[in-house]
Design brief:
Layout (H helix, E strand, L loop, with lengths): L1 E5 L4 H12 L4 E5 L7 H11 L12 H5 L2 H4 L5 H8 L10 E3 L4 E3 L3 H8 L1
Parallel strand pairs: 1-2
Antiparallel strand pairs: 1-3, 3-4
Helix pairs in contact: 2-5
């Protein structure tokens, strides 16, 4: 079973959830706005994913643009970036799928098929 972290009104999250159901992937769902990931969770997921921390930011989100993070992230330490991500689930790219040995960030069907099917 994997953990599916989503923002239910998000159309990409809805599409991803439908994909999981159609491919009979067992999952528990977590609403990212109501249960924002902690800095510790985000750090562990980033390490497990092998991805740069920047990939965990929702760069197309309104809050990301309002905070002008495109220009600010480069001068922030990883600890500062993790602390910022932990302040609001809307800053975190979604959906996230957390498995025992992997973390998927965003919905890329080809990547999901290789790890979940």
């Amino acid at each position: 079973m994997v953990q599916f972290i989503e923002y239910p009104p998000c159309s990409t999250c809805q599409k991803a959830k439908k994909w999981l159901t159609e491919h009979e992937v067992s999952f528990t769902s977590r609403h990212i706005k109501e249960q924002n990931p902690s800095a510790q969770e985000l750090a562990a997921w980033q390490k497990k994913s092998g991805l740069p921390l920047k990939r965990f930011f929702n760069t197309s989100g309104i809050l990301y643009r309002q905070l002008n993070l495109k220009d600010k992230l480069a001068s922030m330490s990883e600890e500062e970036q993790l602390a910022l991500l932990a302040t609001d689930g809307m800053l975190v790219k979604r959906p996230l799928v957390i498995g025992d040995t992997f973390v998927l960030v965003g919905f890329r069907e080809k990547e999901w098929r290789s790890l979940l099917s």
